[in-house]
Structures are given as structure tokens and as C-alpha cells.
Design goal:
The protein contains 15 helices and no strands. With 294 residues, it is an all-alpha fold. The chain is elongated. The N and C termini lie far apart (118 Å). This is Tetratricopeptide repeat protein.
Length: 294
């Protein structure tokens, strides 16, 4: 075993090493202090951008729409050059159903030098929500045909419908359905287009496809009943439905029968709707009373 005195040189070496490392660290810190603070500022800015981006994503998805509007309105005022904040404000206004304000917000977005074709499609969507079909048509026409998205062609189909350009509408609906993995919504819209044209059989087929894609889509079920009623088909098709939905669909079918002049059939369907509903079906009761009193 070594005598303690024999270990002292090694201890002194370690102490010197520690002192050297400490001095080196201090020198490095001194160098950092003397360095221009721009790098540090840039680092903090990067962190702020990440945090801001995450908060913006949250506001666009799970946040309350009006809270999101307030957030994006404030941050846009603070950073008026950032197009992503302008987009957030415009999108939040659409979610909050403040459509006139949304149009103005999207108009600012598309005027920005960094605006994209996707922004122009969203602008057209906002215009359609306010009934400004003509301007929406012009905005969509200005987008290159090479920009092919589900939303673009769904809007193109809706505009063609508004112009009663049925052949174009059918073509656009078909393209839109092929560009999404969830075509139930566009199939329902397409079916409604056929329904308004009086093509009831084709409408029924499209509504059936929409329901097959999404068995929970009650709008398509109700539209399908309207299409069947217009063809004097007064029975419910085989499809997934709750007891409440069944009662509501029978009510729709009863009213469709009355519209066709088949009043007694309509009354019978309304009585069945009232009996089927698990609770008091006030709307059907009122409809039946009005018919019986007449």
C-alpha cells in the first residue's frame, strides 16, 4: 500500500486540471458575453416560432372558433407580415360562421405575395358561403387546371350547379369523388344536384352510395327518402338506422306522399312515424293534425 505522501503529486495534477477546466469555462463564458447577442436572439425567436406554430394548430382544430378568431386577430395585428396568421384568422372566421368577415380576411390572404392556389380555393369557398357565386367562379377559373384537389373540384361542381351547367357539374363531382378517401359528402351533394334537376332515380343511387360510404350520414338518408317519395316509392329501404331515425324518415316519406297527392298514404306514414318514435314526436303530430283538419 502506497504512503499518502506518494499520492500527493497525482492529487496536485488533478487539482491543476480542475482549475484549468474552470478557467477555460470562464473564458468561454467571457467569450459568449462579448459575442454579438444576435445568435441568442435568433435562438429565442426559433423557440417562439415553434410555440406559436403549435398554438396556432391547436386554435385551428380544437379551440373554440370565436376564441381562435380573437387569438389570430391579436397575433395578426402584432405580426401583420405573417401570412400563416392571416390564414388562421380567415379559417377561424369560417369555423365561427362569420362568413362576411371571412371573405374579407381571405381577400387579404390572396393579396399577399406568398399566397398559394390552396388559399385561392379557400377564398372561393368563403365567397360561396356568402352566395357570391359569380366571383367564386372567377377565382376558381384563375387557378391553373394542374392544381387538382378534392376541395377545388367540389367547389367547381357546386358553382356549375348554380349555373345549371349539369354536364360540367357531373364531371366535377366525379373527379372530386375520386380525389378523396371519404366520398360520402360529395356523393350526397351530387345526389342533391340530381334531385333538384328531377333525376330522381339517379339521385337515389347516389344517396345510396353516400350511405354505403358513411352509414351515419342522416342527411343522405333523408335525401334518399325524398328521392324515393318523388318516385312514389313509399317504403323505407334496407339500411342502418336508429328507431328515432326511422320515425323521422317515415315523417319525411309521409310528407313526400302528400306532396304527390297521395294524402291517405301520407297520413298512414305519419301515424307510423308517431308510433315508431321512442318519444313524443311533436312535428309529426302537428303534420297529421293539419291533414286531418283539412
Amino acid at each position: 500500500m502506497r504512503h499518502p505522501s506518494q499520492r500527493q503529486p497525482m492529487t496536485r495534477i488533478r487539482s491543476r486540471s480542475a482549475i484549468f477546466l474552470s478557467l477555460s469555462a470562464l473564458a468561454a463564458l467571457a467569450g459568449c458575453a462579448d459575442r454579438d447577442d444576435q445568435e441568442v436572439e435568433r435562438a429565442f425567436q426559433a423557440v417562439n416560432v415553434i410555440e406559436e406554430s403549435n398554438l396556432s394548430d391547436i386554435m385551428l382544430t380544437v379551440g373554440d372558433p370565436n376564441e381562435a378568431v380573437a387569438y389570430f386577430a391579436r397575433t395578426t395585428r402584432e405580426n401583420p407580415e405573417k401570412i400563416e396568421l392571416k390564414r388562421g384568422l380567415a379559417s377561424s372566421l369560417v369555423r365561427a360562421k362569420r362568413n362576411e368577415e371571412a371573405v374579407n380576411a381571405w381577400r387579404e390572404v390572396v393579396a399577399h405575395p406568398q399566397a398559394t392556389n390552396e388559399d385561392r380555393v379557400d377564398f372561393a369557398d368563403a365567397l360561396i358561403r356568402t352566395g357570391n357565386w359569380e366571383e367564386a367562379d372567377g377565382v376558381l377559373d384563375a387557378i391553373p387546371p394542374t392544381f387538382e384537389t378534392y376541395k377545388r373540384y367540389r367547389l367547381e361542381a357546386m358553382v356549375a350547379d348554380s349555373n345549371r351547367e349539369w354536364q360540367k357539374a357531373d364531371s366535377f363531382y366525379e373527379i372530386a369523388a375520386g380525389l378523396t378517401t371519404k366520398p360520402s359528402g360529395v356523393m350526397n351533394n351530387w345526389g342533391y344536384s340530381k334531385l333538384t334537376r328531377g333525376d330522381f332515380a339517379d339521385a337515389e343511387v347516389l344517396f345510396a352510395e353516400a350511405i354505403q360510404q358513411d352509414p351515419t350520414l342522416f342527411t343522405a338518408k333523408n335525401n334518399m327518402i325524398l328521392a324515393r317519395g318523388a318516385q312514389r316509392k313509399y317504403s323505407l329501404p334496407v339500411m342502418q338506422m336508429s328507431q328515432t331515425e326511422r320515425a323521422q324518415l317515415l315523417h319525411t316519406l309521409g310528407l313526400a306522399a302528400v306532396k304527390q297527392g297521395d294524402v291517405e298514404t301520407g297520413k298512414a306514414l305519419l301515424r307510423e312515424a308517431i308510433e315508431t318514435h321512442p318519444q313524443h314526436f311533436e312535428e309529426a303530430v302537428r303534420s297529421l293534425r293539419a291533414l286531418e283538419s283539412a
